[in-house]
């Protein structure tokens, strides 16, 4: 599995030592994550991304360029041979747990009780179960059982 790695820290990093901040600098805006979400759901063309998200053409162009530059998406010739399409790279597919976690948080906190919403299902049509981080010992992890170990 190939990975894209950024060689040198950007002088524009929000917080150069924090993986969360760097990730947000790369894919943390609303449109980038919606493009990644739609790519995970099979969108491939500029037109599909625009139709699904409602994003303005200039913003979509910028986000697609940024996602390609950071190795999240790749551009290739569509099977028809007539246009380009966008596909997730291994780096982009690695965002699946992030999108899943955001989805599940939204299901719990962004909808009123009983309000309908889309459901993510597995290949058999069963709803994807809640994910929860666990430690090496199998115990659930949360803000009370973890801490950040600073580099300096």
From TrEMBL:
InterPro entries: HTH_HxlR, WH-like_DNA-bd_sf, WH_DNA-bd_sf. The keyword DNA-binding applies. PANTHER family: TRANSCRIPTIONAL REGULATOR, MARR FAMILY, TRANSCRIPTIONAL REGULATORY PROTEIN. Keywords: DNA-binding, Transcription, Transcription regulation. One of its GO terms (molecular function) is DNA binding. This is Helix-turn-helix transcriptional regulator. Residues 18-114 form the HTH hxlR-type domain. Residues 133-152 are annotated as: Disordered.
